[in-house]
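Hey, can you fold this one?
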Amino acid sequence: MTVRLLNINLMPDKQATEKHFKRITDALGFDTKTEYVYLASHHYKNTSISYLKQHYKCLSDIKDTYYDVMIITGAALEHLEFNEITYIDELNEILEWSKEHIKKRIFICWAAQYALYKNYGIKPIKNETKLSGVYLYNINPSHPLYKDIPYYYSPQSRYMQFNPEIKVINDLNLISYRGNDIDILTNKKQTDYYFAGHLEYNQFTLAKEYERDLKINSNIPTPENYFIDDSSIPLEERWYNSAEEIYKFILKKE
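Sure. Predicted structure:
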């Protein structure tokens, strides 16, 4: 069995994100073939265009291709309104194209918030304080994942949270939560998955983001449940096994 996976990589550090997802797909127990897409309408500051053209494709390159799963990653765009994003038209084109060419779609962090807005008209809640750290989430006992992982840890790095209004949308089912903070949702057909957090992150990703954020705002909160005591050394990753189980559940072919 080979799962064809398309990754729309919107993260600033493209190569680090590629490694994060490769760690997961390598551990799934079945073959995956991943292709990466970049947005031609976006000006990239952190990745050279030569690297993108060598390792990535554009929508025009794949428009006649079909995939089992598409992932759209998070992006450092929470400070902007959706209509202020320069490549939003191209992203909308990809979303429309994916309806006919993709069996399952996974939206992560900012992409999850935008996809919920596009699909259901629900805008996210924006918080003044960043949620950053590693948190324990409970699986909904009625979901099939519960029999294998009743709870899991997940890295979070966001100012946004899912709007409580999504609870009244009949087409959406809750998979995991921490009090009022929802981490994973799916539609009833289980073809679309919305992740608030970053199960793909490695042990050091939040530390690197924290270091980056401190240069912009010295009052940024320290990631919670992440560093050893008062040091700058991250605790061992607690989410790897659960991340693999969750992705295996979604990516496996029917």
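The chain is about 30% helix and 30% strand. Let me know if you want another pass with a different chain boundary.
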